[in-house]
Design brief:
108 residues, 6 strands, alpha+beta, globular
């Protein structure tokens, strides 16, 4: 069995209205992760790559939706979601550059 690379565990951050509220209210960030990753590997990847302390990791498997276009039907892939609770005082900024641009537009 091939060992998992720490860089391949986190696929991408999930940035939606709901996850933004989770980040503000509960200090939680949400990631799409590899389907075969477990909570220990996810915790290690977040702490190493983002340099933050993690309190808790919750995972859930999301089933792919069935889709149909005309007479052709198909199914989206299943995927895994990880909700990572950060320790008090820790913060992760995904769009720091965008916030800086917004600040420049407000000044102008």
């Amino acid at each position: 069995m091939k060992a998992k690379d720490i860089h391949s565990i986190l696929r991408r951050p999930m940035v939606t209205e709901k996850t933004t509220l989770q980040k503000e209210d509960n200090n939680q960030v949400v990631f799409m992760v590899r389907r075969d990753a477990n909570k220990i590997e996810i915790r290690a990847a977040v702490e190493t790559l983002l340099s933050v302390r993690v309190e808790e990791v919750n995972t859930l498997n999301v089933r792919g939706k069935s889709r149909r276009v005309g007479r052709y039907s198909g199914k989206r892939s299943n995927w895994k979601k990880a909700i990572v609770t950060l320790a008090a005082g820790e913060e992760v900024e995904f769009f720091g550059a965008l916030e800086a641009l917004e600040g420049m537009e407000e000044e102008a």
